[in-house]
Amino acid sequence: DISGTKCDFSVQVQLRFCLSETSCPQEDHFPSNLCVKVNGKQCNLPGYLPPTKNGVEPKRPSRPINITSLVRLSTTVPNTIVVSWTAEIGRSYSMAVYLVKQQSSTVLLQRLRAKGIRNPDHSRALSKTCQPIQEAGMIYG
């Protein structure tokens, strides 16, 4: 049953936004004044986090948006996603739609153990290849 808004689905449809930066993997990052409608219905977005400094625009938490309850699960009826946001000079964004299967912590742990233990130098090398993008303390108006 997908009629309820609080249902937990083992398979979810998620929207993700990030900066269009190809030099390294990007975390979720929402554009300013984002508005998402799925099949004509307004999508609930994550609330804003409290600003870390005075005068800095508040940000939403970096996480996907679960749109499963708004999606039509039909092979004959199309789904429509309408997205808009305020353009920012020097920044462009990418959006993706993911079909995600939830895994229990037990299954995830089994899968990690099956991969074996990696040398700590592997993780250190990964963390050095992509340094986080520093945000300028700009106020958007």
From TrEMBL:
Q: Where is the PINIT domain?
A: 1-103
InterPro entries in UniProt: PINIT, PINIT_sf
Query: What pathway annotation does it carry?
Result: Protein modification; protein sumoylation
Q: Has the keyword Ligase been applied to this entry?
A: yes
Pfam name, any one: PINIT
Q: Which GO terms describe its molecular function?
A: ligase activity
Q: Which superkingdom is the protein from?
A: Eukaryota
Annotated PROSITE patterns = PINIT
Q: Cell membrane: present as a keyword of the record?
A: no
Q: Keywords in UniProt for this one?
A: Ligase, Transferase, Ubl conjugation pathway
PANTHER family according to UniProt:
E3 SUMO-PROTEIN LIGASE PIAS1 (PTHR10782:SF11), ZINC FINGER MIZ DOMAIN-CONTAINING PROTEIN (PTHR10782)
Q: Which family does it belong to?
A: Belongs to the PIAS family.
User: What name does UniProt use for this protein?
Assistant: E3 SUMO-protein ligase pias1
Organism per entry: Xenotaenia resolanae
